[in-house]
Design goal:
Helix content: 55-70%
Shape: globular
Largest sheet: 2 strands, parallel
Radius of gyration: 21 Å
Strand order of the largest sheet: 1-2
Number of helices: 15
Strand content: under 5%
GO biological process, one term: meiosis I
Organism: Vidua chalybeata
Number of strands: 2
Protein name: MEI1 protein
């Protein structure tokens, strides 16, 4: 079925949402819900279809072109298609790298637009925001060096007339700039405050991947980002309200991040002891899977 569905997608244009959205979803699940052997073949089929990749390029570009004056409360068909497009491309980046699959057509993405979508949000639906962050995680994990992707960034434009004070750091973090990093971190913190069940796990995962990327590129910058005092206020905010327990997946994953990068000004020995005490008193077998997994990672890191 992959061959006819890929060919069908390649004959469409992004406005054919009723046909394209379920088709892209089918391709997405064909990659994820299969055996490793079949998965490798599926990736090869998708990446060998030039018309499909050209269609995906157009879908990604529509993210910045489609700007309805007021988005409906529910997900529109256009937004649903964009979500499917970003998730499929993120998956293709992941599996192309894993299997070193031959690429017949590259995709081009403006990094500044992707970062601005997260930093400024501009009333984008939560599911679309999550999908874009999934893509951002994929490119960060590959150090922006995927053979499937061409990164275009405004930071790459020469500007000799306007020397930047942090040019050395920007060079180390290329294609990211220091200002973009700090803006992105602040925006991720602000998004976490919403305590949205769909958004929070994606935001924490994006923050984890960002700090890992920074640590490889420039350890001082990564440690500086991980020890920002605002993180402590964020933890207090997440622990306020109805759920005061440390045994929340997002809180545990943030704590793990701060322990990993030795941010002692954010998480103290007292709080580590509190988490261990709560875990000792909890019925581990009854914890949700996400909480159990996050607790395992935290204890392993400690």
């Amino acid at each position: 079925l992959l061959f006819p569905v890929c060919n069908l997608c390649g004959k469409c244009n992004p406005r054919d949402t009723d046909l394209l959205q379920p088709s892209l979803n089918f391709l997405y699940w064909s990659l994820h819900q299969t055996t490793p052997c079949s998965q490798q073949r599926a990736v090869a089929v998708l990446l060998s279809n030039v018309s499909l990749l050209e269609l995906l390029q157009k879908v990604l570009e529509c993210t910045w072109l489609w700007s309805p004056p007021s988005r409906p409360a529910c997900l529109s068909s256009e937004d649903a298609l964009l979500c499917s497009g970003w998730l499929l491309v993120a998956s293709l980046l992941l599996y192309q790298h894993r299997y070193n699959t031959e690429v017949h057509q590259t995709l081009s993405v403006d990094l500044t637009e992707v970062l601005n979508a997260v930093i400024f949000r501009n009333k984008k639906p939560i599911l679309l925001l999550v999908s874009i962050m999934q893509f951002l995680r994929a490119v960060l994990r590959q150090n922006f060096s995927s053979s499937l992707l061409v990164i275009v960034s405004q930071n790459t434009a020469p500007s000799a007339a306007q020397p930047q004070p942090s040019s050395l750091q920007d060079s180390a973090l290329h294609p990211l700039a220091m200002q973009q990093v700090f803006s992105l971190v602040v925006s991720l913190q602000n998004l976490l405050v919403h305590k949205d069940l769909l958004l929070s796990p994606a935001v924490v995962a994006c923050l984890e991947t960002l700090v890992e990327y920074l640590y490889v590129k420039n350890q001082d910058v990564a440690l500086h980002v991980a020890s920002q005092p605002w993180h402590r206020f964020l933890l207090f905010t997440l622990l306020s309200g109805g759920q005061k327990s440390f045994l929340q997946p997002e809180v545990l994953r943030l704590m793990t991040l701060f322990v990993r990068y030795q941010s002692s000004n954010i998480i103290s020995q007292k709080e580590i002891s509190q988490i261990i005490q709560e875990a000792a008193e909890a019925n581990i077998a009854e914890l949700p899977e996400a909480t159990s997994h996050a607790l395992h990672l935290f204890l392993s890191q400690v």
